[in-house]
């Protein structure tokens, strides 16, 4: 099949690369010229395990091409995936500017029947807007061309994106035409061989399914964070509670790890967008509001734990931070908990020494340049360098090399043996026995 994928971010590039890997001919289009040139040179602008090899191999085999021109790419295919960003607008609603720009460009250049697939996460009713945007361009051109719009939300996780795409739990396809349904079934057949993972439904059903999935996962996290905060006040170890409830098959172990808040490009914006959709339909999504509120508060917990120890004025204090990315396995910094922590620390007068195995280049763009110039934020070459003469160490992202560190070395490096563990990676009892002042999330055991 010949396919055009518009947007070469985490979703578009993975989608294009995986379709090409299955033998399809794919052109990935992006308006960001530097990204496209990087890709043409065989360089991957994002960090995603396994992606580079697939992109290079398929590019070499001529199955995966890159272009900055959508009209050019459109000439080669009749199946267009829209995988551009849908960032939060000012009121929390999903900003559809990029999606509708692509739709209009498709309308201006469409020559024959085509299927337009929304892969971006978009609010209920967006397929209708995409259809209308294309149709109005066709009307302006005075031409009649048939086309179908399909909703095919993406469920991949950054850090495991290739595997998720190649072996999905399910493939959701919202469709209202038999012609488009057959084409989508054909395309996804090879990703769904062991058992039928294809789920066809109405277009609006598919649009809401994506938001409901992310909102449910965010709800589990915020719920557990709330119980963890309560456990702290009660002198209860949340780790025991987690295991105790996770073993209930109705609850399960996934997404009930307490921590310093969820981030990333999806959960925060998708929860906000669903709240906004509720408002539009005059429905108060009170659970989702609480999920969002808890998460905002949770992102302050690490700072608050330091504040308990140092007081509000942290002038002269040095804090070593391990992990900047919003989660391990990615360089994505969007809504990362490290951002709120570090900004609060420097505002309180502290100096931050930070290390992340992958995300430091990306992270540099997320803080004011003068903070680096004045030495208030220092990015270190090694995880232990970040602890030199620090008054405390804070674990923000649970990258594997942080999981079993050399605590003796850490104790020697730190000015005060304080460990604030934002991901409950360490054993509080063992660390206390070694003389550390340890605080986890829901594990402040006196
Ligand atoms: N990142 C994830 O883990 C994930 C998972 C599932 C779904 N999603 C959804 O997928 C969508 C894309 O997310 P992402 O993280 O890949 O975004 P991203 O910001 O990484 O990439 C979007 C890309 O689209 C390009 N773009 C914007 N306008 C364009 C246009 N008119 N023509 C061509 N290219 C254009 C941008 O230059 C950028 O490279 C979002 O709706 C997101 O919510 C993301």
From TrEMBL:
The active site is at residue 266. GO terms for biological process: polysaccharide biosynthetic process. It holds the Pfam family UDPG_MGDP_dh. InterPro entries: 6-PGluconate_DH-like_C_sf, NAD(P)-bd_dom_sf, UDP-Glc/GDP-Man, UDP-Glc/GDP-Man_DH_C, UDP-Glc/GDP-Man_DH_C_sf, UDP-Glc/GDP-Man_DH_dimer, UDP-Glc/GDP-Man_DH_N, UDPglc_DH_bac. Substrate binds at residues 155-158, 210, 255-259, 263, 327. NAD(+) binds at residues 30, 35, 86, 121, 158, 269, 334. It catalyses: UDP-alpha-D-glucose + 2 NAD(+) + H2O = UDP-alpha-D-glucuronate + 2 NADH + 3 H(+). It is an enzyme of class 1 (oxidoreductase). SUPFAM superfamilies: 6-phosphogluconate dehydrogenase C-terminal domain-like, NAD(P)-binding Rossmann-fold domains, UDP-glucose/GDP-mannose dehydrogenase C-terminal domain. Its EC number is 1.1.1.22. Keywords: NAD, Oxidoreductase. GO terms for molecular function: NAD binding; UDP-glucose 6-dehydrogenase activity. The keyword NAD applies. Residues 320-428 form the UDP-glucose/GDP-mannose dehydrogenase C-terminal domain. Pathway: Nucleotide-sugar biosynthesis; UDP-alpha-D-glucuronate biosynthesis; UDP-alpha-D-glucuronate from UDP-alpha-D-glucose: step 1/1. Belongs to the UDP-glucose/GDP-mannose dehydrogenase family. This is UDP-glucose 6-dehydrogenase.
């Amino acid at each position: 099949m010949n396919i055009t994928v518009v947007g070469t971010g985490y979703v578009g590039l993975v989608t294009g690369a995986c379709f090409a890997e299955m033998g399809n001919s794919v052109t990935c289009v992006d308006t960001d010229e530097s990204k496209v040139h990087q890709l043409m040179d065989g360089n991957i602008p994002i960090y995603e395990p396994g992606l580079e090899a697939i992109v290079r191999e398929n590019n070499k085999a001529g199955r995966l091409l890159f272009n900055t021109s959508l009209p050019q790419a459109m000439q080669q295919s009749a199946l267009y995936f829209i995988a551009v960003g849908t960032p939060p607008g000012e009121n929390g609603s999903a900003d559809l500017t990029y999606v509708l720009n692509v739709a209009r460009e498709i309308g201006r250049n469409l020559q024959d029947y085509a299927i337009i697939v929304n892969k971006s996460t978009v609010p209920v009713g967006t397929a209708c807007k995409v259809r209308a945007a294309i149709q109005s361009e066709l009307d302006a051109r005075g031409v009649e061309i048939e086309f179908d719009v399909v909703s095919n939300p993406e469920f991949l996780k950054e850090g495991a994106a290739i595997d998720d795409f190649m072996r999905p739990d399910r493939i959701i396809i919202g469709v209202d035409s038999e012609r488009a349904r057959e084409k989508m079934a054909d395309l996804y057949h090879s990703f769904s061989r062991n058992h039928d993972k294809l789920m066809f439904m109405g277009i609006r059903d598919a649009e809401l399914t994506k938001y409901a999935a992310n909102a449910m996962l965010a709800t589990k996290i915020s719920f557990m964070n709330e119980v963890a905060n309560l456990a702290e006040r009660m002198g209860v170890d949340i780790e025991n509670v987690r295991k105790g409830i996770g073993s209930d098959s109705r609850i399960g172990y996934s997404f009930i790890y307490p921590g310093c808040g969820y981030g990333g490009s999806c959960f925060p914006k998708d929860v906000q967008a669903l709240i906004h959709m509720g408002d539009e339909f005059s429905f108060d999504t009170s659970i989702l509001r609480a999920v969002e509120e808890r998460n905002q508060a949770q992102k302050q917990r690490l700072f608050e734990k330091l504040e308990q120890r140092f007081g509000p004025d942290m002038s002269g204090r040095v804090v070593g931070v391990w992990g900047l990315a919003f989660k391990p396995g990615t360089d994505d910094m969007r809504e990362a908990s490290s951002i709120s922590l570090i900004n609060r620390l420097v505002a309180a007068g502290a100096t931050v020494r930070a290390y992340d195995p992958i995300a430091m280049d990306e992270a540099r763009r997320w803080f004011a340049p003068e903070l680096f110039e004045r030495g208030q934020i220092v990015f270190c070459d090694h995880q232990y360098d970040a602890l030199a003469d620090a008054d405390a160490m804070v674990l923000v992202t649970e990258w594997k090399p942080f999981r079993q560190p050399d605590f003796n070395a850490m104790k020697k490096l730190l000015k005060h043996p304080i460990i604030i563990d934002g991901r409950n990676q360490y054993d509080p009892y063992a660390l206390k026995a070694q003389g550390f002042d340890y605080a986890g999330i829901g594990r402040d055991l006196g």
